[in-house]
Amino acid sequence: MTPSHRIEIVIEEPLAPRLLALFKKLQVPGYTLIPRAGGSGDRGIRRGDELAGDSSNCVFVIICDDRALVDRITQEVGPLLTRYGGVCVVSACEALTH
User: Fold this and answer.
1) What is the mean pLDDT of the chain?
2) At CA 22, angle to CA 21 and CA 25, rounded to 5?
């Protein structure tokens, strides 16, 4: 097991391409995308079952053992979340990879 950080970013699904462009710019080595996530928060209910996806969130999960990259990701994601809403959670974890 490798000590790592788990980054979870929840944003409105239409903003996913902006986040993907940011990942490319920062050379994020990999991520998992969970589309059409539903839930409830300070912006109300987000449904994951609408055809257009306008009221859906998506979740990106990144596992990273490079603290400097974690810091760059959170610094770059911050303004996007401030402007459009969403949340970014960083937690310590241990990763077992292939």
Assistant:
1) 89
2) 90
